[in-house]
Specification:
Layout lengths: L2 H8 L11 H9 L2 H13 L4 E2 H7 L5 H13 L3 E6 L5 E6 L1 H45 L1 H6 L7
Antiparallel strand pairs: 1-3, 2-3
Helix pairs in contact: 3-6
Length: 156
């Protein structure tokens, strides 16, 4: 099999529109806030392990179920190791693998970008919201019947 054929069977590199694209597949797996938070908490503790309850405390708003699913996915993908201490109740510990630590470096770049640019993104959203609100008001001033015509009859 040629290198091109191998690449094609593994997914079109760099084509986010192809479901086999490595970048798209990664984003599908790690593109949640809980996944990035869990990786960050575990990276900060590395090389030490973190127990489930501590992870939950350090991730405000995450439910037990969502954290459990997130950790299962991270473990399945080889980014996290899980160790169960045989006790009653069992104590479960998590730690990033070398692969998980390498992902943390990439996520840190995304966090840095967000810290630098999210104020700009928020301002753009606010301008857009104001423009849309202003456009709606000016349409009503120009032709109230036109605006009334787009409302369901129960609101007229």
């Amino acid at each position: 099999m040629t290198l091109q054929a191998t690449a094609a069977s593994a997914g079109a590199r760099g084509d986010l529109f192809d479901p086999r694209c490595p970048t798209r597949r990664l984003l599908d797996r790690i593109g949640t806030k809980w996944m990035s938070m869990a990786v960050k908490v575990l990276a900060e503790a590395s090389p030490q392990e973190v127990r489930f309850g501590e992870l939950q405390r350090r991730m405000p708003g995450v439910s037990q179920k969502m954290l459990s699913v997130t950790l299962q996915n991270l473990t399945r993908d080889g980014l996290v190791t899980r160790r169960v201490e045989p006790s009653v109740p069992p104590r479960v510990h998590y730690r990033l693998t070398e692969l998980g630590l390498s992902l943390e470096a990439a996520l840190a770049v995304v966090r840095a970008w967000a810290e630098e640019h999210m104020a700009e993104v928020d301002r753009a959203n606010e301008r857009n919201r104001q423009d849309e609100a202003g456009a709606g008001a000016s349409r009503a001033e120009q032709d109230p019947d036109q605006v009334r015509g787009i409302l369901p009859s129960r609101f007229r």
